[in-house]
Amino acid sequence: xxxxxxxxxxxxxxxxxxxxxxxxxxxxxxxxxxxxxxxxxxxxxxxxxxxxxxxxxxxxxxxxxxxxxxxxxxxxxxxxxxxxxxxxxxxxxxxxxxxxxxxxxxxxxxxxxxxxxxxxxxxxxxxx
Length: 128
Known about the structure:
By secondary structure, the chain is α+β, with helices and mostly antiparallel strands. The chain has a single domain (about 5-105), classed as Beta Polymerase, domain 2 (2-Layer Sandwich), CATH 3.30.460. It is built from four helices and five strands; from the N terminus they run αββαβββαα. The radius of gyration is 14 Å and the shape is globular. The N and C termini lie far apart (about 50 Å).
């Protein structure tokens, strides 16, 4: 079994929103073969607690616009590692220190890495 197209679209929207808030190194893994509870793990990093919060808010806002709400949110108080559970997609927003320490990429390296598409920052609007 592989991740659904719906799950991949949610992950791409979340990754794009995270990058728009200056998140670092987004990576997504198809964990559907290994876990029954979700299809995709999306992992992003932020350099400080305030940025972790901004990234989380940006992801929630972007997905809410498409009608998708998280079923659970954990780690919000400390803002070192916030987990957003969208059932088919679990988003991990980690402080860069937590990301290095817990190395989720190494843990899930046997799972297929997913193409998130073009995540370059959106172009600035031109002034006329």
